[in-house]
Model the fold of this input.
Amino acid sequence: MQTNIGLLLTKRAQICPDREACVEYERGRRFTFAELNARANRMANALLATGVTPGDRVAVLLKNSVEFIETYFAVAKIGAVMVPVNWRLVAAEIAYILTDSGARVLVYDSDFDEAAQALHAGSKGALAVELWLRRENGEAGAPGWARDYDAFCAAASDAEPATGAWDDDNLFIMYTSGTTGRPKGAVHSHEGMLWAQLTSMSTSDMRDGDRWLLALPMFHVGCLSPASLLVHRGGTGIIMRELDIGGMFHCIEQERVTIFMAVPALLQFMLIAPEREQNDISSVRWIATGAAPVPVSLLHEYEALGIRLFQAYGLTESCGPGTLLLPEDAQARAGSCGRPQMHTEIKIVDSAGNTIPMGSGQAGELLIGGRHLMKGYWNNPEATAETLRDGWLHTGDICSWDSEGFVTICDRMKDMIISGGENIYPAELENTLAACSEVQEAAVIGIPSQKWGETPLAIVVPAPGAAPTPESLKAYCKAHLAGYKVPQLYELVDTLPRNPSGKLLKPELRKRFPGPAPF
Done:
């Protein structure tokens, strides 16, 4: 049987046409699977009528919405390739992605009229965009060079379009966050997304009738993959246009949400939000989390609420899946990111490429294998050859694993600090500081040192009501770390910079705290 992700929606609409497929929380719009499929078919047929062909790239600059989801499935059905664009980027950054991907179509929210105007005015033949589709969000009046999204779709048939792609054909190109250099476009196939969904469904606690809150941005694999997965599993996507903690609690109560995804920093904020006490969140069964380990204290607080935490590690390049720490292992294996998910293989290798045995205590680079890996980076064979080798995805993360296969991330290869000839992994120091009652979250970077070459600087966000000092933090670290690892320098800040997926932006911290150390 051949795979086309768009046909999952077709099949789901046949199996349970009247089941609720998605709900737009802010706008109060509700769609069954039959209605969602009809909308996707209209979009697909409208695109075909304008000359979009299999392999053409369709870029999407939309906030979370049913239009985002229906465009994804429409593009999949006809064999075009979706390019989700981070709407927090400025016009020049968006232009790079449009140019690099060669997108022929741009679907954009009227929220981004200014960026779209700048892109259109400044393209001068540099962009391949021929069709500009504007989805109105209260701002009336599309420019003459753009077409109204609703009118564009409404004029087309809702009949099933001819299927334009199968199996290893390209499905979407998702650009990495670009924390270093230009973003790279990870290319994923229909079959790859299918295996990512099968992996997630078979490792986590997905049930018939689940209601997943889609609050993280859909331009990230951590939200696009669940949105796609819900159609496969027959669940309901509760869509928030963008994340708002107060609205999130109200939405959970109103829509009886059972699952959502949140990075640990958001989990911390949720606990202290006044709306938590004002809304009934007893429907939530579990939360998927990632981007950083969850402190044991946070685990206990969510256990007290009757909510289990599934801690995931994955990458855009793996279409999400990697390892998973199940709730029953979370306390005993605090700091670990778990074991490989179903349909996923891992190994840890040394600098010579030799596999490091489990339980050896030695750290090396984590490699991921599986049918859900990206095909490569778009228009970047050099980066592809560096990252994908012999069927393995080289993550760039330094990890170790114990005798039972539980993986612990030591750090990114590029973030490792060499101080006085000793290797120091900032992630280990960050995990130690995160367990301190005075600390909400922490980041550690290396700064130049005349004496040691590099020395770690700890940048700490105090816990609510706490007043840590460099002296108290240093004393805590001395009690929990080997002497050479203990940071000698500390900075207290209100927040840490993160990208929309929750990833810590250490380059920004390095710019803010360039050093050198006073020793």
Remarks:
- The chain has a mean pLDDT of 92.
